Amino acid sequence: MKGGGGGGSGASAYGFPAKRRWKGLVIGVLGLVFLSMLVPLVFLLGLYNGFHTTGYASDSQSSKPDVFQPNAIEPKKEVEGFIDESRETKEPTGLQPSKVEEKPPKVEEKPPKVDALPTHTHENGTKVDGKVQATHRMIAMDESGKPCEWKFGSYCIWREENREVIKDSMINKLKDQLFVARAYYPSIAKLPKQGKLTQELKQNIQELERVLSESTTDLDLPLQIEKKSLNMEAAIVKAKSFPLDCNNVDKKLRQIYDMTEDEASFHMKQSAFLFQLAVQTMPKSLHCLSMQLTVEYFRTDSTNLELSQAEKYADPTLYHYIIFSKNILASSVVINSTVSHAKESGNQVFHVLTDGQNYFAMKLWFLRNSYKDATVEVLNVDHVKLHDEENATFVLPQEFRISFRTLTHSRTEYMSMFSHLHYLLPEIFKNLDKVVVLEDDVVVQRDLSALWSLDMGGKVNGAAQSCHVRLGELKSFLGEHSYNQDDCTWMSGLNVIDLAKWRELDLSQIFRGLVSEKLSKQDKSTDAAALRASLLTFHGQVYALDNSWSVYGLGHDYKVNVQDIEKAATLHYNGYLKPWLELGIPKYKAHWKKFLDREDLFLSKCNINP
Ligand SMILES: *[C@@H]1O[C@H](CO)[C@@H](O)[C@H](O)[C@H]1NC(C)=O
Ligand SMILES: *[C@@H]1O[C@H](CO)[C@@H](O)[C@H](O)[C@H]1NC(C)=O
Ligand SMILES: *[C@@H]1O[C@H](CO)[C@@H](O)[C@H](O)[C@H]1NC(C)=O
């Protein structure tokens, strides 16, 4: 290491001829050589891995609003000390052959780069034509070598996407210097009349600690870092020039090292834990919420509470919204945001379709909370027995990522799509001819009543178009069916549905046919088959909603235009960074959070504070 190396030769140049001292140095150095061999081993064993992941866990709470920063995900304060000390791997005194670049072979086991943007945000929507393959991301592997699941919510895929070589040679140099300086500091401080050097060392140590606590890669480093490093080096050289008891320095080094190792192991465990927590925190507390509400529902015999609004549920003159959700908070936010912006709320009826597990909790929640004059009905999909062959298992609207690869380009697109439950809507809501289907990761920011008078030109499905992906690009996926290659794909999230026309065309039957056809052919997953079938079913039946109706990508794209967000009638957090997760993109969370009742008793009981 350069820093150490310079220091080493500097020390001998200063020249303390006394041989005994020299011997002591050699012993000390040998000890350090031993240490420096141990440390790479530690990282080989995977400690390094644990180290960086801490960042994710804590990111969102330090929520720095707005400012778009590539390193939006950064380590939280608590881990600073560890960062300072965890990777001081190289020869501290610098008498070793200094192979600066020889770092622990970490590139392979590198965790996702902490400050990296998801790669797709760098993309320039380049149109790739020709030999495009729609492959579901099967390339990414998890730790055990199994391919990542290509559905959302996969940390594995995320990790894979953010894999990037970290440039950190300067960081490592600084850490080395810090390591050495700390080892010398106590001995120097004990020397009489060295107040100035002690002060200098201390200052330098503090400065580097501060810098390293804020930086994990060279890119984060402040500009004048070279100078800081030189100052530190000079201080170290001076420190080394004093006749110190090498045993003390050595002892101190060992101390630091032991601490580092303990700390590393602690933090590794903790970070793995914290990551889990980050992914699951909200789901866990949501589970708590669901449980608490369910218990409460039966404790208070809430059946009495139920208002008789049933006549409204099926009144075709009202505005009916449909939400599939297992997430109480999310559906509450969708409804609250819709109602909050509605010019008139009394004519709004929300149908929340959920599964048996969340049914009673949802029921109680929507009994306890009112949303202006709107009506909310909670339905248990498990009890909906409609189609003979079909046992409706609850599947949320699904999200897909589609990777396109050519030799020179790769890009990933995100789609959200109806699940097979949507194809039950015409049967469940027999009385209704028109509905608006909202996903639970949507926030409404405008009055939606204009959707109800929208002329869709005889089409069944008014949806946001996504022209980043055209049907022609999915050829290998869609198969032999005839369709217009130039047609854009569409997204679920905000859909205006003409149920009458749907029944007339019997789209549900067409969908079922397409699903089973695919299943009998290749061994594609059922989810993929549903995506394909949905695209084909609605081919030619999609009315493209104006762009101002919805902005999507808030669950994966860090670069959504701020003005678009402000103007949009609805925001769609499609992607895995949902606003109710710790991992949610901080600058988008506020738009979601403001529709929660933070004072709610059950939220505080379950420690929910998104
Ligand atoms: C994308 O690429 C095109 C052509 O290469 C260029 O004109 C455009 O500015 C690029 N857009 C972005 C956002 O980089
Ligand atoms: C679905 O229904 C079929 C027949 O109606 C039944 O045999 C099967 O066990 C059901 N599957 C599940 C998972 O309930
Ligand atoms: C709905 O949102 C408002 C803020 O717009 C909030 O004050 C209120 O508590 C929310 N209601 C519920 C039931 O979450």
What do these coordinates show?
There is one protein chain. With 610 residues, the protein is an alpha/beta fold. It has two domains: 169-280, no CATH class; 284-605, Alpha-Beta Complex (Spore Coat Polysaccharide Biosynthesis Protein SpsA, Chain A), CATH 3.90.550.10. 44% of the residues lie in helices and 13% in strands. It has 20 helices and 13 strands. The chain has helices spanning 2-14, 19-44, 47-59, 80-86, 155-161, 169-190, 195-214, 225-240, 246-299, 310-313, 328-341, 356-368, 425-428, 475-478, 499-505, 507-520, 526-537, 562-567, 586-593, 601-605, and strands at residues 133-135, 319-324, 348-354, 375-380, 398-405, 410-417, 434-439, 442-444, 461-470, 488-498, 542-544, 550-552, 570-572. A seven-stranded mixed β-sheet has the order 4-3-2-7-10-9-11. A three-stranded antiparallel β-sheet has the order 1-5-6. A three-stranded mixed β-sheet has the order 8-13-12. Helix 1 (2-14) packs parallel to helix 8 (225-240), helix 6 runs parallel beside helix 8 (225-240) and helix 9 crosses helix 12. The radius of gyration is 30 Å and the shape is elongated. The two termini are 44 Å apart. Residues 1-16, 45-139, 150-154, 162-166 and 264-282 have low confidence and may be disordered. The site of one 2-acetamido-2-deoxy-beta-D-glucopyranose has 8 residues, from helix 11. Its EC number is 2.4.1.-. GO terms for molecular function: polygalacturonate 4-alpha-galacturonosyltransferase activity.
Topology, pairings included?
Blueprint: H1 2-14, H2 19-44, H3 47-59, H4 80-86, E1 133-135, H5 155-161, H6 169-190, H7 195-214, H8 225-240, H9 246-299, H10 310-313, E2 319-324, H11 328-341, E3 348-354, H12 356-368, E4 375-380, E5 398-405, E6 410-417, H13 425-428, E7 434-439, E8 442-444, E9 461-470, H14 475-478, E10 488-498, H15 499-505, H16 507-520, H17 526-537, E11 542-544, E12 550-552, H18 562-567, E13 570-572, H19 586-593, H20 601-605
Parallel strand pairs: 2-3, 2-7, 3-4, 9-11, 12-13
Antiparallel strand pairs: 1-5, 5-6, 7-10, 8-13, 9-10
Helix pairs in contact: 1-8, 2-9, 3-9, 4-7, 6-7, 6-8, 6-9, 7-8, 9-12, 16-17
Bound molecules: 2-acetamido-2-deoxy-beta-D-glucopyranose (3 copies).
One 2-acetamido-2-deoxy-beta-D-glucopyranose (NAG) binds at residues 332, 336, 340, 369, 594-597.
Pathway: Glycan metabolism; pectin biosynthesis
Main location: Golgi
Pfam family, one: GAUT_1
